[in-house]
What we know:
Layout: H1 9-12, E1 13-17, E2 22-24, H2 43-47, H3 50-60, H4 74-81, H5 102-116, E3 128-132, H6 159-163, H7 166-170, E4 174-178, H8 186-197, E5 205-210, H9 219-222, E6 228-232, H10 238-244, H11 250-267, E7 272-278, H12 287-296, E8 300-304, H13 313-319, H14 334-346, H15 351-403, H16 405-415, H17 418-435
Parallel strand pairs: 1-3, 3-4, 4-5, 5-6, 6-7, 7-8
Antiparallel strand pairs: 1-2
Helix pairs in contact: 12-14, 14-15, 15-16
Amino acid sequence: MKVNLGCNAPWYEMNISSADDQVSPCCYYAGPKDPWSNDLNSLNDYWNSANMQHVRKINSGSEVSLTGGCEGCYFFGKSQAHRGEAATYFPSFLAPFDGLSSEQRQNWLAAIDDYQNGRTQVKSTPLRFYINFGFACNLSCTMCHQVPRRHDLPRQVNADALLKWKPYLKAAIDITVIGGEPFALKEAIKFIAAIIDDPEFEAVQLSICTNGTLLHRHMDLLAKKRKLALAVSLDTIGHEFEQIRVGADWKQIERNILDFQALGKQLDYPWQVQAPCMLMKTNVPRLVEFGEWCITNNVQPGFYDFINAAGIEKTHEAENLLVYPELVDQIPEWERYFVLAIDRLRNSQWTPAAEQLNVLYTTIRSNKEKAIEARVRSETEARIRSEIEASVRDEFEAKSISQHPASMKQSIKQVTPPPIWEMLRRMKRASKSIFGSPSGNGSAMH
């Protein structure tokens, strides 16, 4: 299989994670990755490494094997479905927008040229830096794969080391900071402050992925950054939110989001707020209310599947509706919640979110039907097998008794307790003396 102009991620993003000590083209890539070091290497050592060039080969048409990284990825599959068109990992990749600095525009055009020509060793630098500063967090969310690993992976990306790449950071369109919780990571806070306070980063959008619990402590800092976006991990609202996001207070989170939006409006800044939602059994009953909350407050929702990882297997089995569709049987009127939420979102400003949720809904229904068919088929096969075995056994026993009565009599005697066997023998003799032998020509009664 070949891909001509497949997923654009390896020409677009550098994904850095200090806790895992790795660098990759995106957070979905499952192949070999380069080790990250706070003893800073040159950008080119990572951006044009053998591993990064291999990912570009997969997506440029010169590599036919998908094994080792991109196989099974949603975005890679989408690029296949579109017969080589750019995957939607970054849908605006081929159309630079306005409001760019000269460094950004020049870098973006170079990235497009590298991508369209299928270059594996590129002259452009990342259009987005996606930086996971560490796993430390003030919450212990039920489905978070980082929770079981936090104690053993306390490392953080060093802000000072990363800021030495300033010329490349300035040429990026977006710098995304994630954790853990960025506002619970001292290196992340230091980096965020450096980007915000430096006027040379004015044209670069700063995106912060946060749980929203500590926003109220940093409003004065955030107010200095015009191009700013927040992705607040909600999953749902109210009591169910607090069940999933252990340690969080929904009222505080809601107030922080609304205060952030009010501040942006007051400053006349184009601030954006997104609310990613991992679909789980716990949040299905609140899908409609979650959608309506997002519509009312102009918060962009997004729906995605459960991410499984070592350490959260129990939660995965109890919450993942796509892998375990029978879980919906524990949710009365579960389809009603999906249908109403999808309808509300389709008739709002968040139509793409409606389609995301619809894909998940139809997948659950399909998987449930397949599971029922598989169970019925298994039960039918087991019943037929049992009937055949019983028929064969009965036929064998009947044949054995007719052909080997003596041996059958001996087998019965072996499993019958001696006192009972002796009693049966005496009863048989008594029967013969009264009624005669059943094999005789007459009867004692005649």
